[in-house]
Amino acid sequence: MSALADRRVGEFVNRHFVSSFQKVATFRIVGGQKQGGNVATYFCAPDGRVLHVVPGPVDAETFLSEAQWVVESVRRGLEENKKTGTPFKVLFREYHAERLRQRYGLVVEPVRFDPDTSAAGALTYRDPTGRPLAPVLPPPPLDGPDVNFGRELLRQVQAAQAAMPLAKMVSDRAGRRWALGPLAQAHMLLAAHALQPIDKLYGTVFENILGEKISTKPVEIVTPFPWRPEGKRGEPLPAQRRVQNQ
Amino acid sequence: MLSRKVIGLTKLLQSQGLRLGVIVTAFGFALAFAGMRAIPLTAAQQAKPPAEASCGDYGTAIDFEATPAAAAKRAVAEEKLVMVLHVSGHFEDPGLT
Hints:
The complex is a heterodimer.
Chain A: H1 7-16, E1 17-23, E2 28-30, E3 33-35, E4 39-44, E5 50-55, H2 60-84, H3 88-104, E6 106-108, E7 142-145, H4 151-162, E8 168-171, E9 177-180, H5 182-193, H6 198-209, H7 238-245
Antiparallel strand pairs in A: 2-3, 4-5, 6-7, 8-9
Helix pairs in contact in A: 1-2, 2-3, 3-5
Chain B: H1 2-46, H2 68-78, E1 81-87
């Protein structure tokens, strides 16, 4: 609970965001060991389109830095949109590509259109509730290293990324392989899919970046805070109240 | 006789003056008290929580709404962005977030 319990994170998030949570997968206890159990933080526009995602647990500094980047980028995007008329979605994808280049020294071309992933037909596999499964979105191709980044700095960043949990090796167009940590993978994904609805992105984030299977089973634990009284002032949440009344 | 009248008038004026002084002082205190009340009231109004109170903080430093839909509704009203956590575990695990 290091990041979410941090006072500075709390102040900043409560000032600029309205927060909520959802349980999207579950974990099992096998032989006393917990399998699974993870978190992804989505920063969204009020209509549910994803501006940024922080996959997995991060420390308070990283969390605050990413949240601040989102707020600054939204302001910058709105100003630039007024000045140039470039769609906000395209600008935000460019910002993700820019951050990937500046922080990780790797270049991707932001995608300026939305590929059609909604090919839901009669042959589409659906979960027991009748919904099609969340699509797995392809990340944009990696062009290679930024020539202005510096060879030594790139080597250091690559070593740090490779040491991160959930790091993934990604090939660029020339076949060279680069290590990307979860946050770098998120920037790469969002350089192509930022401002997509959260229900299109969460499958890719949870399954491709965090490596967890999304559970379609009914959720038994409504809240991930079982040691706390449910809801405010110890009252049960509305869903639980309905269950109790039945 | 005249001196008695002067002394009596002086005493009357003094007592009235005292009363007047007391009234003026009390009025001054009342004004000052109202002024003192006015500042915190304004600050309290500025820091007034939103009309729709949050669901709880669940032991974190962040206030959570019950559902993402409720969060989105409040975000539109307050011109804020939305933060949604997708979880598959317990927050009691220090490594989770």
